[in-house]
């Protein structure tokens, strides 16, 4: 990484420069990819910077392992427990100039970054890890804003399609066929989230770890302009009919609970109050 100190501001300037340079191309990608609009930007940062971010990732035993029929992966949001470069890289995507550029490309209004990392942060997936087809929950922690964008920055060197653990979009829903977006090193993927934005991560087939820096943007305005609400909803893959039945039942149960308890029945432990840490520090 040379003598450059990779602070949030330094990273944000480079992210903004690269997005601005490709703005027209990214807007074309976005407009041409409905119903799950997305864009892909390769070579986001100087490669030595991105390798530094990947090398800062903690071991899996220092992260939270999420294991169920729905998913198998490591996640972390309490960023003060890890190398400071990880926190700087996450919050670089929340810089006002980056948010404004993403607004200009997507046309989505009133974008607000996720300062508490509600489901954002870092994730790591090892051999056999996966994420079944799902739509993300529609709102933020307090059900005040809609989740409208996912920003996924992949930092694992030499990642190939045959390694698995790639992002999959399901434009026809989980009974259709997915579109694969390889988790290529130094690649940023920005995708819409709404009622029909089914996506997944294919099962990893390699001993390498797939590392990702994740952000989400919220808005007071729902995508498409129509009010909606749903919990994170997982389904089985087409070759998993029994799992699909179980996961459909899980969706019905959790939606029923939310009708009785709009904010849920337990506190979501996955969040990070950066402002609180700044005040303490």
Concise synopsis of the structure shown:
This protein is α+β, with helices and mostly antiparallel strands and 281 residues long. It has helices at residues 8-21, 23-31, 47-55, 84-92, 96-106, 241-260, 274-280; strands at 38-41, 64-67, 71-76, 112-113, 121-125, 130-135, 146-154, 167-169, 179-181, 187-192, 199-201, 210-219, 233-234. Helix 1 (8-21) runs parallel beside helix 4.
Main features:
281 residues; alpha+beta; Jelly Rolls; 7 helices; 22% strand
Provide a descriptive summary of the structure in words:
The protein is α+β, with helices and mostly antiparallel strands and 281 residues long. It has a single domain, classed as Jelly Rolls (Sandwich). Helices cover 28% and strands 22% of the residues. Strands 1, 2, 3, 4, 5, 6, 7, 8, 9, 10, 11, 12 and 13 form a 13-stranded antiparallel sheet that branches. Helix 1 packs parallel to helix 4 (84-92) and helix 2 (23-31) crosses helix 5. The two termini are 27 Å apart.
């Amino acid at each position: 990484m040379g003598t450059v100190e990779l602070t949030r501001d330094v990273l944000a300037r480079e992210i903004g420069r690269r997005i601005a340079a490709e703005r027209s191309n990214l807007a074309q990608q976005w407009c041409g990819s409905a119903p799950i609009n997305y864009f892909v930007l390769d070579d986001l940062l100087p490669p030595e910077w991105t390798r530094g971010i990947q090398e800062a990732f903690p071991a899996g035993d220092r992260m939270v392992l999420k294991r169920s029929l729905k998913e198998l992966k490591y996640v972390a949001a309490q960023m003060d427990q890890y190398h400071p470069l990880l926190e700087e890289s996450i919050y670089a995507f929340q810089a006002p100039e980056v948010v404004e550029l993403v607004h200009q490309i997507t046309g989505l209004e009133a974008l607000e970054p996720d300062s508490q990392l509600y489901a954002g942060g870092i994730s790591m997936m090892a051999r056999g890890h996966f994420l079944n087809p799902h739509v993300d929950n529609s709102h933020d922690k307090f059900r005040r804003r809609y989740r409208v964008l996912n920003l996924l920055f992949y930092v694992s060197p030499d990642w190939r399609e045959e390694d698995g653990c790639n992002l999959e979009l399901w434009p026809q829903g989980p009974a259709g066929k997915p579109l694969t977006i390889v988790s290529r090193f130094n690649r940023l993927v920005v995708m819409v989230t709404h009622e029909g934005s089914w996506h997944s991560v294919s099962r990893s087939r390699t001993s390498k770890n797939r590392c990702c820096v994740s952000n989400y943007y919220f808005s007071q305005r729902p995508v498409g302009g129509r009010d909606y609400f749903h919990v994170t909803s997982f389904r089985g893959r087409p070759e998993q009919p029994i799992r699909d039945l179980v996961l459909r039942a899980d969706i019905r149960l959790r939606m029923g609970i939310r009708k009785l308890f709009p904010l849920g029945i337990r506190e979501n432990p996955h969040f990070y109050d950066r402002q609180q840490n700044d005040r303490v520090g």
